[in-house]
Each structure stands twice: as C-alpha cells, then as structure tokens.
Write a structure and sequence with these properties.
This protein has a domain at 103-369. Helix content is 4%, strand content 42%. The chain has three helices and 55 strands. The N and C termini lie far apart (59 Å).
Length: 661
C-alpha cells in the first residue's frame, strides 16, 4: 500500500507540462536563459536553478513557465524585465523570481487558460508602468492568480498611463479576466501611485477577488478600480486588506472606485484603512453605475472616512470610523461605531485586547466575498472564538484570538513538562492546542528532544510529554499555539486498529487537497510513540505513523487546518536547501526574526516518509526544520508550516515603532 501511495503522490506532484531546467540543462538550456526559452516548445515548464544574478532581459513569445527551483532565489539585475506572452490553452506560472529594478508582465491570449504569478519579489524605481502587470488580450476567459508577491514601486510623478504596482486589465472587449490578487505586500510611492489596480478600458468583464493584501503608500488608491468603457463590467470583491502610510509623506487612499463609463459592482468587507486620504472613495459620472456593499471596515486617523456620492448605490453598516476630518454622503448605520478602535499602532492595525472592534462585525457579510478565502491580512482564519462564547468576526482586516507562546521546561528527571498559561489553564476540552519543539528559543542553543511529543490535560493544566517516556531536558523549549478558529480545529480518534494510517472525515477537509494542517498527538489513554505525518489521497486527508508501524486503537490527535496563505504553506526539502539533518525555510515573514514561533507538521505529499522526530531552530537569518536524532534530512521530505505575523510583529518590538500609544 505504501508504494502505491508514493507512486500516486509522486505523479500528482510533477508539473503537467514538459519540463526542462536552466542553467546546465540539455540544449537549448545550456547557454542563456533567453536561448532556453526560445528553443523550448510551447507549454514548457522551465525551472531556474541558480542563486546568481541574471543579466538578461527576458521576453517569451510563447506560453512557458518560469519557476525558481525549490531552494533557489534567482535575481535579475537592474534594468531587466520578465515578459511572457501566454498564447494557447496552457497553464503558465511565473514564480519565485526577484527583479532588482524592473517589471514583470504576463499576457493571456488565445484559448481559455490560467496564469499564476506568485512568490515574486519586484523592485521598480522611476516606474512608468506596473511592476507586476497581467492582462487579458483574448476573446475567451483567462484566470489570473497574483499571490504572495512583494512589490515595491516608486512611480514617476507624471506617468504616461494609469497603472498600479500590481495591475490587472483587459485589451479586448470580449471575455472576462477572473481570479484573485491575494496575500501580496505592496509598497507604492509617489503622488500618482496606486497599489492594486483593476482597469476595464475596452469592454468585457473583470471579476477579481482582492483579498488579504497589505498596502503601503498608494496615494491615489490602495485598491483602485477603474471602468472606462460603456460595455465594461467590473465585479471586485475586496476583503481583509490593510492600508498604511509609507514614510512620512505618502498617505494611502484605501479603496477607490471610479466609473467613467460602464458598471462597477464591489463588495468592500473587513478592510483597515489607517491614516488614509480616503477610506472608501467613489466617483460615478452620469451614465455609469457603481453599486457598493461596504461592511465591517475600520477607518481611522485619516482625512475623509467615506466619500459616497448621491448617484452611487451604497449599502453599508457595521463600519468603525474614528478620528477622520470628514465624511461625504455617509450616515452611520445602526450598528456602526465611531469610537477609538484601540489598534496596536499606525503601522500595525491589529486590535488590542478590549478593542470595541473585537466580535463587533456582521459575520454574514463575509459571504458577500463569495468564493474568496476567509483569510485575514495575516493569512489566518477569520471568525475566531475569544473566550467561552461562539466564534465571531472582528471589524477590520485582522482577526484576533489566536494564542502563541513558547514554553521552556524548568523541571528535571521527568518526561512531562507542565504548560502554564491563562488562555490554556482550565480548558480541558481544548482541541486547538499544538506544539513544536524549538531548539533556539531566545537565542539559546539546545537541548534536543529526541522523542515523539504529545500533550495531555490533567489537574487543570495541559502538559507536554514524550511518548517514549524519555526525560525532557531542562530548558527544552516548545512553541505552543492555541488556534481560535474552532470551526477548523477538532480531535480525531483512531477507532479501528490494523493500519499505519487513519482516515480523517471532516467537512472542510474532504476533497480539499491543498489545505495546510497541524497535527499534535493528544493522549487520552493510548500511547503512540511514533512520528506522525499527513497525506492526502482518494479525496481524504490521513494521518500516518511515518515509520509505518500500525496506529493503535484509541490514539488521539488534535487537528487544525486552513487554506494556504502567506503564513501557512508547505515546505519541501531539496538538495538546494538541505544541510545534513536540516532544511532551510524561506519566508519573508520569519526571515531575520529569531523570536518567531514556527509550527510544523510532517507531510508525505512528495512520497517521502521522514520517520524521525523533528523540531525547528534559527540560525544565520533563517529558520530550519531538523531531525532530532541527527539523521540526514531526505530530499522531498515535506512539512506544513504555520506562523503568526501578529506574533512576529509583537516579538520584534514593532508595537511602538511609529510612536503611537
């Protein structure tokens, strides 16, 4: 059975298109990258295996994918751009590239297909065009996914055209550009700067979800939606985005809707606009139409909160507007608030404990975002339980409620260590607690904990223990998380012995192969001294003993799951990121942050069973996952990783960085 599963999962993990790599590949990929592209067939998946700076200006006049190989960070030198003209029914990916001073453009043409522009880092100065520009020049529908990019654009004061740092638009009056702009970090500088722009200038449709982005600057609009043609039809779902000032001058404008002709329909839900020139600004000229649904937004410390012209159709309530100079066309709804939101800071709009915005949003308003991920600006789940009541929704871009801390063992001579935290104590039914061994807490070194850890509850407190009854060394540290999204946490008990894996049956997981999971052994009477991992097959998620020993009846697990986000992802070990018994994580949220609290669960997505206890540690600017018994880390070992940007900001002492108190 194991070999069958490995074969299935390995086949699933391979790119569907033809595959080649550069540099060092077979001809035509044995000279320049441009020659590799020119000589490759349409639909080729080109993996870039270098950390060196590439001094080439790339133009692909065909549908090819350009993807940084796992463990590599290819960089393009200043003045060089990457352009792909994706013509035909091929999936195209541009992923993991760094542009030190240039722009990225991917064009969808021909038959319906999908384009993914993800995990890129683009810096663009004196910009006259978008840093990342995707557009549809097809009569058919093109799906765009622009996610997890980091973009810094310094615009010219008088650009020749209207673009955002990230721009999505159409050039043909038929077909629809669909998809999402998700989990990006965008800085747009200049008096004409825009953050994320949706522009319909020739007719046809744009239907995009703009979710979970953090935008700095963008004085003309953090999310700028522009309709310019009488046959234009734009539908924008704009949720859980945070808008901030850049430096001392470039104050943001949150959401700007401008209908010069045609129609704009927008759902603007659960965003935070801090120090904005406008929170939401609507322009509708005669003959055009704007229909906006504005709920659960937090607008504070700005100039104009809401600008709603009389001609526009605006439905609104449950917004918190505080300390703005004026509003136009806005009369607070019956559930609106106008009191101090008690945010952490002007560059950190997360809510302090006791904030009136906590649990004060209308939960059903999230449904207006349709199929968008219900993910906040940190990449965590919306709607969390903050006490003994039901899970509810906060106003603004960030959801409060999760607990992250590090427990350090102070005892000796025992395989048990008692957790002591007010949010855990007395909560015997908590299925949302998870642990990960941390070898480098607060810069300390070690000790190892070479055993399979679990947790259990007794006497009013939770405890960490070693399933193999091995003593936990003094100063051994464990990252502890209590995830408050109770709809996504549960206990799973094995009720039928005889297999080394157990099927999970759970709505929200079944049929969802891309979910990110955390699994912690939760002792309720049955020991299972084996390393656990997860895998997906035949429509179900499963938990396995990675050493393939049968799981005993009564073994019990805490399980957490969520959609992938910028703070929840799968890491795969490769020859380029492995040293000895460890593999290096690379995520800008935690890079350079030794106080980050990283949580990992092993995955068998690539067909590799890493049958060893694991932990995390920090060194040289990066976090790493390591085998506790010092066994070599195998290529294609995989890990589901979850971190908290809120915890990272707090431990990095960013709370009063802007002088806000």
């Amino acid at each position: 059975m194991k070999n069958i599963l490995i074969l299935i999962m390995t086949v699933i993990s391979l790119p569907a298109a033809a595959f080649s790599f550069w540099p060092g590949g077979a001809a035509p990929c044995n000279t320049t990258l441009q020659a590799c592209i020119d000589g490759s067939p349409v639909g080729e998946y080109i993996e870039i295996r270098t950390n060196s700076t590439i001094n080439e200006n790339i133009f692909a006049n065909k549908a090819v994918s350009l993807v940084a190989a796992n463990g590599y960070k290819p960089k393009f030198s200043v003045g060089n751009n990457v352009q792909v003209y994706a013509n035909g029914a091929y999936t195209v990916r541009v992923k993991g590239l760094t542009l030190l001073g240039g722009s990225m453009q991917v064009v969808g043409a021909g038959a319906p297909h999908s384009i993914y522009v993800t995990h890129n880092d683009v810096t663009h100065t004196n910009a006259n065009v978008a840093s990342i520009r995707v557009y549809n020049t097809s009569y058919d529908d093109i799906h765009f996914d622009v996610s997890y990019n980091r973009v810094h654009t310094n615009f010219l004061n008088s650009p020749s055209d209207e673009f955002g740092a990230i721009s999505v638009y159409k050039t043909i009056g038929n077909g629809t550009a669909t998809g999402r702009v998700y989990g990006n970090t965008v800085t747009a500088v200049g008096i004409e700067s825009r953050g994320i722009m949706l522009n319909e200038r020739v007719g046809g449709g744009i239907d995009m979800n703009v979710i979970g982005n953090e935008i700095y600057g963008a004085t003309q609009g953090g999310v700028y939606v522009l309709s310019e043609h009488n046959n234009s039809d734009i539908h924008a779902k704009i949720g859980s985005n945070a808008f901030y000032r850049h430096d001392d001058f470039y104050f943001p404008s949150g959401v700007h809707l401008e209908a010069l002709d045609g129609d704009i329909e927008a759902e603007i839900v659960n965003n935070s606009m801090i120090e904005s020139r406008y929170g939401v600004d609507i322009i509708e000229v005669p003959g055009a139409m704007v229909d906006a649904y504005v709920y659960n937004n937090l607008v504070a410390y700005g100039i104009t909160g809401f600008y709603f012209p009389a001609a526009a159709t605006v439905t609104h309530d449950y917004n918190l507007v505080y300390d703005v100079t004026s509003n136009t066309g806005y009369t607070p709804g019956p559930n609106a608030l106008s009191i101090n939101p008690q945010i952490v800071g002007l560059q950190n709009a997360r809510l302090r404990p006791g904030s009136p915005a906590i649990d004060s949003a209308q939960s059903i308003a999230l449904l207006a975002l349709g199929g968008s991920p219900f993910i906040d600006a940190d990449g965590g789940i919306r709607m969390k339980k903050k006490g003994s009541g039901a899970a509810q929704l906060d106003i603004g871009a960030y959801e409060s409620g999760d607990v992250f801390y590090t427990h350090v063992n102070k005892g000796t001579g025992s395989y048990i260590s008692t957790l002591d935290h007010p949010d855990l104590n007395g909560d015997s039914g908590a299925d949302e607690i998870h642990i990960t061994s941390n070898w480098s807490h607060n810069g300390a070194v070690g000790p190892y904990n070479n055993d399979n850890e679990g947790i259990y509850y007794t006497g009013g407190k939770w405890r960490v223990f070693n399933e193999g009854l091995v003593d936990i060394e003094p100063n051994a540290a464990f990252n502890v998380a209590k995830f408050a999204a109770v709809s996504n946490t549960f206990e799973h008990e094995v009720t039928a012995a005889g297999n080394n894996y157990t099927n999970i049956n759970k709505s929200g997981l079944d049929g969802q192969s891309q979910r990110i999971l955390q699994v912690t052994q939760h002792w309720t009477g049955t020991y299972n001294d084996h390393p656990p991992g997860v895998w997906y097959g035949f429509g179900k998620w499963n938990i396995s003993n990675l050493d393939l020993v049968n799981i005993p009846n009564g073994a019990n697990y805490n399980v957490y799951f969520q959609e992938p986000s910028k703070s929840a992802w799968e890491h795969v070990a490769s020859a380029a990121n492995i040293v000895s018994n460890r593999t290096t994580l690379d995520n800008p949220i935690i890079n350079g942050v030794p106080c980050a609290q990283v949580h990992v669960t092993q995955s068998v997505s690539q067909g590799v069973y890493n049958a060893h206890p694991v932990g995390v540690y920090y060194s040289g600017g990066y976090w790493r996952v390591y085998n506790q018994d010092l066994a070599a880390m195998p290529v294609d070992a995989a890990f589901h990783v979850v971190v908290s940007p809120e915890q990272v900001a707090a431990c990095s002492d960013l709370i009063f960085k802007d002088g806000f108190d």
